[in-house]
Amino acid sequence: MSKRMNPRAEQLRMALAQEAARIMSEQGIDDYRLAKRKAAERLGATDIAVLPKNTEIEAALAAHHRLFEGDRHSSALESARRTALQAMRLLQKFQPRLVGPVLSGTASAHSEVNLHLFADGAESVALYLMEQGIPHEIAERRLRYEPDRLVSYPVVRFVAGNREIDAVVFPIDGIRQAPSSPVDGKPMRRADGGELQALLANQPQERVGWP
Fold first, then answer.
1. In this predicted structure, what is the pLDDT of residue 109?
2. N- or C-end of the chain: fewer Cβ atoms within 10 A?
């Protein structure tokens, strides 16, 4: 059992979580480590023992959206999810799965849509987008599976409406095991189109244009 912090340290930890959440919401940052560092600099915290866990920041971010953004956040989240659904329909041949803040509900108005695709390689995804006349770029990202195992994957990035789509391309059998979530270290939650449609079932329809 971990030792309980003194009340002042607990207050600072809570303040850091709230400040990191504010930074993520207002600056459109999805990187917990970066937001945590910015919050520590802003509040002058130098003791790493008081830094909040990512799960605490995620909870503070959800609370921040409820308290300070309300309907505006709900509308932005709905728009992001509808954009994600349209992108997933476009990429249905690659078995798309939605992950990250747009799925969890903590996305800000600036958050990109994170997808996982499954194909023989990024080239097949890029060629398909090229055939559809959709500008895109290819990058690379390292994802964690265990504390000591990082794996690099290609990433295809493009724009739908006013939202960036960031799609990591896994091998076909990569659908069996999700990488670790940057929030809690557990296997990342993935949702297919049907699950996303269920989240949107009672929300009004809205169209998103492609470039």
1. 77
2. N
